[in-house]
Every structure is written in C-alpha cells, then in structure tokens.
Amino acid sequence: MTVSVIQFGGSNCDRDAVQALEEIGVGAELVWHEDGLPEDTSGVVFPGGFSYGDYLRAGAMAARSPIVEAVREAADDGTPMLGVCNGAQIGSESGLTPGAFTTNRSARFQCEHVHLRVENADTPWTAAYDEGEVIELPIAHGEGRFEVADERLAELEDADRILFRYCDEDGEVTEDANPNGSKHNVAGVLGERDSVAVLMPHPERAAFSDIGPTDGQGVLQGFSE
Amino acid sequence: MTAYTATVTVRLKRGVLDPEAETTQRQLERLGFDLADLRSADQFEIDVDASDADAAAERADEMAERLLANPTIHDYEIDVTERDA
C-alpha cells in the first residue's frame, strides 16, 4: 500500500507529506509528475508549494499536466486523492473538486494557525473527528480564498460536501475567524466522491508530536483504510 | 491562411472580490488621484494563422476555456485583428 505524493517543479511540501504519512503508518513515495502515476498506487496527494511558479493562476499549469488525467481516472475508480494548499488549487483548477481558490482578501501571503470546524465527519478524511469538532492546523498561502457561485455553494452545502470551515477556537464560524475571505468560511471541500478532497490548511504540518499539535493526522488517516 | 492576432481579455466576474485591484486603487488614491473604481484584467495576445477571423476566434475561445480563464471566477472576451505576417 503506497500513496503517491506528486512532485511538480515548485512543490515544496512533498517530503513533509511523505514523512507525515509514514508517521501514521501509511506507506508513501515521491512521484515526479513526468514519470506518471504508478499502477499500484493506493492513493494520491497533490502537495503544497508553488508549482510552475504559480504562473497564470496558482495550480493552473499543474492541473493541465498529463499526470492529472491519470489521477482523474484513478480517482474515478475510487482511489483516494487529497490536495493540500497548492494541491487544493490544482484540484480545483483541474475540476476534480468544485470552486476556485484565489487571492486572499488581504492580498497578502498569510502564514498562521487557524481553527477549523469539522462539517462532515462521515468521510475518510474526517472519520477520525466528530462533527462539529474544532481542530487546529497551519495555513500558508496567498491564494486561499474559496470562491464559487452562490447557487453552486448551496448545492455543495446541501450535498454535505463542505469538509471544514474556518472558525474561532469555540467553533463559531465568524468573519473574524475567516483568514482569507473564503465564501461561507469554506476551508476544504469534497469532489464528486468523498474519496476526493482538498483543503487549504496543512494537515502534514500538524502530524508530529515532537514539534507541535497533531490534529492533522486525522485527515491523513483517510489513506489508511 | 491569414495571419491574425487574437486578443483574449480575462476579467473577474462581476461581484468577485479583487483584492489586488482594491490595493492598486488605494495606492492611486494615496498618490492623490481621484477615481471612482478600478478593475484589473489579464490580456493575452495570441498570434495564429487561420482560414478566416471566425476560425481564429474559435481557436482562441478554446484556449480561454481550457486554460487562460477559470470559468468559476472569470469572464473573457476575444477580439481578432489581422496582423502583418
């Protein structure tokens, strides 16, 4: 059982993702995007970073690379796929997940810890948590504002496809707790299947007890089944 | 075949927040300029050879759909002119 962590030029959270998965006992390896997706891959991570220098739009170039088509086919067959930060932007740019992640309301790169409320605990990525539970993860992005048409957002909410919302430490979803201006404080969403998910916060940066909180391990456990 | 330049202008849809444009506007106001609003857009000039202007526009349209614009947040328009080959 080996999860493929896809490296593009400019990926920079790829090794962290491999180490964090290994920390929870999930085998993982780096896969250079031009080498194609290994046939026996048990899961896919699009890691954070600045693939292709964020040219055009964050994630736009990587989303059109051939390996994404292979990932799409694998995901359609049920292979779990997680996109984190730049990986989330790749997920939305490729249409694997809905909406878009664009320039923060502040127009600045933001690197801080945020609180997230678990909106749907009935997915592989959130099964380790309870619905309504508050977890703490770091963010580090300049383009993390979730944008989607209002009617589409209503559809996503009705279909329980919102994974996490930014909230305060008590779990209240407020404007003050919204770091980047995301619509309805959305921090992570599901694709067509619940085995496909993206989020802007970094679970792999909150997975080692030696260096801080480990709230991110639960997200990564989506690969452990 | 005729030589054309297809100019693709990609804008944020109305109502989508544009923090970079807001920051730019604020800086212009700090410089003393008086302005009511400011919008930014990306523009791509694409040289293509095509049988006619419609064919050139169609090709540019596909480029916009597939890569240059993100339909979730963008509108775009295409203007085709002949160019000196």
UniProtKB/TrEMBL annotation, chain A:
Pfam families: GATase_5. This is Phosphoribosylformylglycinamidine synthase subunit PurQ. It comes from the Archaea. CDD domains: GATase1_FGAR_AT (cd01740). Part of the phosphoribosylformylglycinamidine synthase complex involved in the purines biosynthetic pathway. Catalyzes the ATP-dependent conversion of formylglycinamide ribonucleotide (FGAR) and glutamine to yield formylglycinamidine ribonucleotide (FGAM) and glutamate. The FGAM synthase complex is composed of three subunits. PurQ produces an ammonia molecule by converting glutamine to glutamate. PurL transfers the ammonia molecule to FGAR to form FGAM in an ATP-dependent manner. It comes from Halorientalis regularis. The active site is at C85 (nucleophile), H202, E204. It is found in: Cytoplasm. GO terms for biological process: 'de novo' IMP biosynthetic process. Pathway: Purine metabolism; IMP biosynthesis via de novo pathway; 5-amino-1-(5-phospho-D-ribosyl)imidazole from N(2)-formyl-N(1)-(5-phospho-D-ribosyl)glycinamide: step 1/2. Its EC number is 6.3.5.3, 3.5.1.2. One of its GO terms (molecular function) is ATP binding.
TrEMBL record, chain B:
It is an enzyme of class 6 (ligase). Its EC number is 6.3.5.3. Its main location: cytoplasm. It catalyses: N(2)-formyl-N(1)-(5-phospho-beta-D-ribosyl)glycinamide + L-glutamine + ATP + H2O = 2-formamido-N(1)-(5-O-phospho-beta-D-ribosyl)acetamidine + L-glutamate + ADP + phosphate + H(+). GO terms for cellular component: cytoplasm. Pathway: Purine metabolism; IMP biosynthesis via de novo pathway; 5-amino-1-(5-phospho-D-ribosyl)imidazole from N(2)-formyl-N(1)-(5-phospho-D-ribosyl)glycinamide: step 1/2. One of its GO terms (biological process) is 'de novo' IMP biosynthetic process. Coiled coil: none annotated. GO terms for molecular function: ATP binding; phosphoribosylformylglycinamidine synthase activity. It is found in: Cytoplasm. Keywords: ATP-binding, Cytoplasm, Ligase, Nucleotide-binding, Purine biosynthesis. InterPro entries: PurS (IPR003850), PurS-like_sf (IPR036604). Part of the phosphoribosylformylglycinamidine synthase complex involved in the purines biosynthetic pathway. Catalyzes the ATP-dependent conversion of formylglycinamide ribonucleotide (FGAR) and glutamine to yield formylglycinamidine ribonucleotide (FGAM) and glutamate. The FGAM synthase complex is composed of three subunits. PurQ produces an ammonia molecule by converting glutamine to glutamate. PurL transfers the ammonia molecule to FGAR to form FGAM in an ATP-dependent manner. Part of the FGAM synthase complex composed of 1 PurL, 1 PurQ and 2 PurS subunits. Belongs to the PurS family. This is Phosphoribosylformylglycinamidine synthase subunit PurS.
